[in-house]
From TrEMBL:
Pfam families associated with the record: ADH_N, ADH_zinc_N
Single GO MF descriptor: enoyl-[acyl-carrier-protein] reductase (NADPH) activity
Stated name of the protein: Enoyl-[acyl-carrier-protein] reductase, mitochondrial
Record bears the keyword NADP: yes
Catalytic activity annotation: a 2,3-saturated acyl-[ACP] + NADP(+) = a (2E)-enoyl-[ACP] + NADPH + H(+)
Domain of life: Eukaryota
Length: 367
């Protein structure tokens, strides 16, 4: 291997039918590329099972692309996947991370429509984005504009898309209609607020009380929230007595009593969509909500939608979201960037069993 490293690039290409991922040094000498990455060999507590490693970037297949990652978020679903509690199968050892953004470094010999320097995001899940250098199938990548912010791009495919679909696919919302949601400060909730604002829809946002509640309310209001209430304040809120219409759509991020509370304020024949279970409590639906209010309850899972949706629908959603982002109508969620070496901080906060993490943790691979 040492001898190989000293060979010229041409010589190596002859030796390897697959394209070798190499770094060309001065004097035409080459060195194999190393990827800095996180990996787990068993399911369990992320703080115990996720390890840092450096390993050689594999050879590039004809339809593959070498990507230098810029950023990748730590989402609740990533944590649940590492714990072995998420309903998707991964083979071990596995590199975590479902979404992220990077620059194309090198393309396989049959990749015609991408070139070095393109900014790309992962369009399919389970590709393992928590690494600075990665070889991905061409089909897993989508080009995004260079002007799109790294954090917006890195977090585009999960929460903005989930918010967009839930606001589009269940109820035909018109200007001045009202959407109520819990977890209003979640990354997904922040996207709901901003998309609604852009579409002229009002939002009633329920959050948990905390010492810095006034800062949180101010932040969400600046994003475009029409109302922000703590769970306690919501119980005595009078806004549905004439100030605003009753919501036709409720978005349930939390479950348990919090989800049941949303139903109390929702309109007759409205729809509640459950997409998260942050309280780890089952969804509670009082019998009266079904019988006397004819409320429909649905679930939504972005992964499932992606499996069946036509390419044009995906393209249209992506374009709409990017347009909102580029015009600053859709900002990235509150976040903290952490370097790969500090990944434990990101895991610890993303894991916080009682919540109150306060922001989305994003792995930052830039030097
Ligand atoms: N179905 C789908 O396709 C889909 C797509 C995207 C996300 N999701 C789900 O949506 C949820 C939010 O995801 P995200 O990325 O937006 O998460 P996030 O930014 O980390 O936000 C988490 C939210 O959950 C709340 N929370 C945390 N622990 C809680 C607890 N014990 N009881 C009540 N609330 C709690 C937090 O509120 P505090 O600030 O009060 O802690 C915060 O609002 C997750 O369950 C995720 O898996 C589902």
């Amino acid at each position: 291997m040492t001898a190989l490293k000293a060979l010229s690039k041409t010589a190596l290409t002859v030796l390897y039918p697959r394209q070798k991922c190499t770094l060309v040094l001065r004097g035409n000498q080459i060195r194999n590329l190393m990827s800095r990455q996180l990996v787990y060999n068993e399911f369990g507590d992320p703080l115990q099972v996720v390890k840092y490693r450096e390993c050689e970037v594999p050879a590039l297949g004809k339809q593959e692309v070498l990507v230098r990652m810029l950023a990748a978020p730590v989402n609740p679903a990533d944590i649940n996947t590492i714990q072995g509690k998420y309903p998707v199968k991964v083979n071990l050892p596995s590199i975590p991370g479902n979404e992220g953004v990077g620059f194309v470094e090198q393309v396989g010999s049959e990749v015609q429509d991408l070139q070095r320097g393109n900014k790309v995001i992962l369009a399919t899940s389970l590709q393992g984005t928590w690494r600075n250098l990665a070889v991905f199938p061409r089909t897993s990548l989508t080009v995004v504009p260079d002007a799109l912010g790294n954090v917006e791009a890195a977090t585009l495919t999960v929460n903005p898309c989930t918010a967009f679909r839930m606001l589009s696919d269940f109820v035909c919302l018109k200007k001045d209609d009202v959407v109520i949601q819990n977890g209003g400060n979640s990354a997904c909730g922040q996207n709901v607020i901003q998309i609604c604002k852009a579409w002229g829809i009002k939002t009633v946002n329920v959050v948990r009380d905390r010492p810095e509640i006034s800062e949180l309310k101010k932040y969400l209001t600046n994003l475009g929230a029409t109302y922000v209430f703590t769970e306690e304040e919501m119980r005595s809120a009078q806004i549905f007595k004439g100030e605003v219409k009753k919501p036709m759509l409720g978005l349930n991020c939390v479950g348990g009593k919090s989800g049941a509370q949303l139903l109390r304020y929702m309109n007759h024949s409205s729809t509640m969509v459950t997409y998260g279970g942050m309280s780890r409590e089952p969804v509670i639906v009082p019998t009266s909500a079904f019988i006397f209010k004819n409320i429909s309850c649905h679930g939504f899972w972005m992964t499932e939608w992606n499996k069946h949706a036509p390419a044009e629908a995906k393209e249209q959603m992506k374009d709409s979201l990017i347009k909102l982002m580029l015009t600053k109508q859709l900002k990235a969620p509150t976040h903290k960037l952490v370097k790969l070496k500090d990944f434990e901080e990101a895991l610890k906060n993303a894991l916080a069993p009682q919540g109150f993490a306060g922001c989305k943790y994003i792995l930052d691979f830039t030097d």
